[in-house]
């Protein structure tokens, strides 16, 4: 008994030492986790601050381009040796605007290096006007008249934005077909914000994902989709290819149809026999076939196994 008690005491002592070591390690891990959490919190704050600074930088860049207009489609070399004088004389004629005082430019240049071969599209022109009001007047007139005509050449005028703003505007414009489909009035305002009106309520969106989520809610409220299984006589009238749009959603019924996938031979059999039992028997026979027999059978499906 004494020897057994001594062995148990020694084992207990070693277990205590191991537990003490584990406690020390856990304390060290707690300190390391706390340090990591502090660093992650600081990185999150820095990331938010960085996003805020990036947004301010984009806004400053757009503001610095407020007096710029971008001309596209003007043929290379048509301006001769003085692009500034050419635009000063040509822009009033294109837009039928009499400017008082006359147009004045801080700088005018084409984008990119000059093409040596003379082929390809003409380079766009960036013109920085001295007066912001004249730049707005040119853009509003061009927007109202559409493409301007210089002889037989179409000239397009647009505002000049930073790359980030251009990407945001393109993302908003990609939602125009969906807005028209949902009968939503909309407008894209500078620099990149979408204004919409639905049922007399107006909203402004600065992010395309927020607008996309809002349109999803409108679509769910106006066109609730029901998932139904068509009866046998309707299945015979559906297309054999399950990826056909009418096989997924019928806008006239407002329902999503889920017809049973059938092969061409089974469709011909269903049309030639009014007895439903014969078709179901053929389906059961095909289901029980082995893969080798299915490959040789004339009941081979065209879309997916039954």
From TrEMBL:
InterPro entries: Transposase_22. Residues 238-259 are annotated as: Disordered. This is L1 transposable element RRM domain-containing protein.
